[in-house]
Write a structure and sequence with these properties.
Rossmann fold; five-stranded antiparallel beta sheet; Tumour Suppressor Smad4; alpha+beta
Length: 376
């Protein structure tokens, strides 16, 4: 033990044992600081990636056409005077009538010279018209007058003031977003299998959604296997035999709370979001419960019977085997100038705003070959 003189003549003991104990503490603090910095850097990079600007350009649209589903959202289009507002904006308006094939109407409009095709309605109507825009390689635009309009919400449009979406034609940008494929059918939001798909195939679903879903769930619990006989391979290489519900989305969803509960951070990540819920049976007979989430660019579904699906709210039946794919940045979409697609969680809003300001100021030199502004 070594004794040194204190500032007022008192003895100060430098205890090597105590000092030895401080060394691991100091090392631990240094390691903790380094780990914190590492994870903060990862979070910053993730935030920066999500804040990357979309590829956009100024379009030259001279002959746009808009198909209006007059029944969507309890007749919201007529209540807000959409047809007159669209005509004032130089848009040809096509009103959907009973018995009309909205897909054929969209094709006919493009064949007649429309250089942009739009839809005013719910997600089902939007998806069908967007499919024609993809097929004919023309820009797509939408006016959210449906009940939910999840695609328009994640696109950054104002669902409470649908007429502002017409600015996409007057003063808009063209951006590139992903779309999904279920077989040869495009989808903008998601495709569900299992409980939800069984429910939307029933006539009573339109009158009482919650009760119909509850009845399907009760029937599944009472039946053999507690799930739908759809097979797919998990990320670990195991084969799932039955799930109560499987959802495949165009870009992954995150929980956002009421009233929408699920939102997408971006619409151009190039990945499907996949969620499998409920009791499932693996190929070796093991069972498990809960919800699993993962991302992939494709998923293959197999079944010994036709596969019931709910695609953007529409009841469809698919043949087995069904391949689900993502088409990165395959949809040209017109949005009002300055529109920022994607959901920003409240806890990240300030950081995202600061990152945006830093990029504008040229402080952040982070480049990404797949993102950025384009004049092309």
């Amino acid at each position: 033990m070594r004794v040194t003189e204190g500032s007022e003549g008192s003895a100060v003991v430098a205890d090597p044992v105590r000092r030895g104990r401080l060394v691991p503490i100091a090392i631990g603090m240094a390691a903790g600081t380094a780990m914190t910095a590492f994870f903060m850097r990862r979070q910053l990079l993730a935030l920066t990636a999500r804040a990357m600007p979309y590829i956009r350009r100024r379009p030259r649209i001279s002959n746009p056409a808009l198909i209006v589903n007059r029944w969507s959202g309890d007749g919201k289009a007529e209540q807000i005077g959409l047809a007159d507002a669209a005509r004032d904006a130089g848009i040809r308006v096509i009103m959907l009538e009973r018995g009309d094939d909205i897909t054929q109407l969209a094709r006919d409009a493009v064949d007649a010279g429309a250089d942009a095709i739009g839809a005013a309605g719910g997600d089902g109507s939007l998806g069908l018209v967007a499919g024609v825009a993809i097929e004919r390689d023309v820009p797509f635009f939408c006016v959210p007058v449906g009940t939910r309009n999840h695609f328009a919400l994640d696109l950054g449009l104002d669902r409470d003031n649908p007429l502002t979406a017409l600015e996409a034609i007057r003063n808009g940008d063209e951006i590139l977003v992903d779309y999904g494929l279920a077989g040869d059918r495009p989808f903008l939001n998601n495709v569900s299998f299992g409980v939800y798909a069984e429910a939307v195939h029933r006539d009573e679903y339109r009158e009482n959604k919650e009760r119909t879903i509850a009845e399907v769930m009760q029937e599944m619990r009472a039946g053999e296997g507690n799930g739908t006989a759809i097979r797919f391979t998990t990320p670990e290489g195991e084969q799932a035999e039955r799930t109560a519900m499987t959802m495949v989305s165009n870009n992954p969803y995150v929980f956002s709370g009421a009233p929408d509960y699920g939102r997408r951070l971006r619409l151009d990540s190039g990945m499907l979001g996949i969620s499998a819920a409920g009791d499932g049976t693996a190929a070796d007979g093991r069972t498990g419960s809960g919800v699993r989430h993962w991302e992939a660019d494709r998923l293959l579904l197999e079944s010994d019977a036709p596969i019931l699906g709910g695609l953007d709210g529409e009841a469809l039946t698919f043949d087995s085997t069904l391949e689900l794919l993502i088409r990165p940045r395959g949809l040209r979409v017109l949005v009002p100038a300055g529109t920022k697609p994607g959901y920003v969680p409240p806890r990240e809003a300030l950081a995202a705003e600061l990152i945006g300001l830093a990029r504008l100021a040229g402080i952040l030199g982070i480049a990404d070959a797949g993102h950025g502004d384009s004049d092309g």
